[in-house]
Write a structure and sequence with these properties.
Blueprint: H1 3-33, E1 36-37, E2 44-45, H2 47-52, H3 58-90, H4 97-109, H5 112-122, H6 129-136, H7 148-176, H8 180-188, H9 193-221, H10 225-229, H11 243-253, H12 257-281
Antiparallel strand pairs: 1-2
Helix pairs in contact: 3-7, 3-9, 3-11, 4-7, 7-9, 9-12, 11-12
């Protein structure tokens, strides 16, 4: 091996060692633990204790159902909203565009505990501003934290508020990469702005939007913060418990690390499968 190559690997060695110790080995070890019954001492191999349990555990199916509901409703709504926001931010008619870009991106950098506390206050049954506005138009206040459907709607709203701006900035970068000549030629051909959006902008943005969809799918499959902090650990009655929250409950509350590892790998497999499905559906026809 040439000296320069050995030198390069020598400089990379500290990072590779840390990467293998804190990333590769935990992944491998977690997979091995998923085949062990960790409710007994010492741990013993048992496929049925963890992977077999997934097939008949109602808590797992409830968490999977809740996660997929959020995925199916929240992700399309958020991506559509982010696309509209990106088009608005890219408009030359908008003044102070840097300020608006920062404002839309700001929710991502807000502390998770802080924004969860704000949402709990805003949607409080007794003194929340949302219920006061609902009452002001003559409707009955909504018990957001005691009704499973209302709590699920709150989770979807919170996740959309937090991540729509982030995706809008990514889509905005894609918008700014589209040459102006394309729009100028379409304008000369008397193509309306609406037609330009659907027949020029969206097709050219397709790879960027697909990238945002994949990121959102992966993030939704790992959703933990909002149901844990906003709806009090997946309440009411598990109505907003996600796979990420179930994993936490099994691993760090029940100390059932084997089952938690099996759930983690199931989450990863589902995220990969759904992402590949999106990539297949969004592929360019040959």
């Amino acid at each position: 091996m040439p000296f320069r190559t050995r030198s390069a690997y020598a400089f990379l060695a500290p990072y590779l060692l840390i990467f293998a110790t804190f990333w590769v080995w935990p992944i491998i070890n977690s997979f091995l633990i998923s085949f062990q019954n960790t409710r007994i001492n010492p741990w013993k191999y048992s496929f049925q204790a963890n992977w077999g349990r997934l097939f008949y555990d109602p808590a797992f199916y409830n968490a999977l159902y809740n996660t997929l509901i959020i995925l199916v409703i929240q992700v399309p709504v958020m991506i559509a909203l982010a696309t509209v926001m990106a088009v608005m931010l890219n408009s030359p008619l908008l003044k102070a565009r840097p300020l608006f870009r920062f404002a839309f991106f700001a929710p991502v950098v807000v502390g998770e505990v802080a924004y969860a506390a704000v949402f709990r206050l805003m949607f409080s049954l007794d003194f929340g501003i949302i219920n006061k506005l609902i009452s002001a138009v003559g409707l009955s206040p909504v018990s957001w934290f005691d009704n499973a459907n209302a709590a699920m709607a709150l989770i979807i709203l919170a996740v959309t508020w937090r991540w729509a701006g982030y995706n809008a900035i990514i889509i905005l970068a894609g918008l700014q990469s589209i040459p102006d000549d394309v729009y100028e030629a379409a304008t000369l051909d008397r193509v309306s702005k609406v037609q330009q959006f659907f027949h020029i902008t969206l097709p050219l943005l397709k790879p960027i939007i697909l990238f945002c969809v994949v990121l959102s799918v992966i993030g939704t499959m790992q959703l933990f913060t909002e149901p844990f902090l906003i709806t009090n650990r997946g309440g009411p009655g598990g109505g907003t418990e996600t796979l990420g929250l179930l994993l936490y409950r099994q691993g760090f509350t029940s100390l059932n690390f084997g089952y938690a590892s099996a759930i983690a790998y199931t989450m990863a497999a589902l995220a990969v499968a759904i992402s590949l499905l999106n990539l297949w559906v969004g592929r360019d026809p040959k």
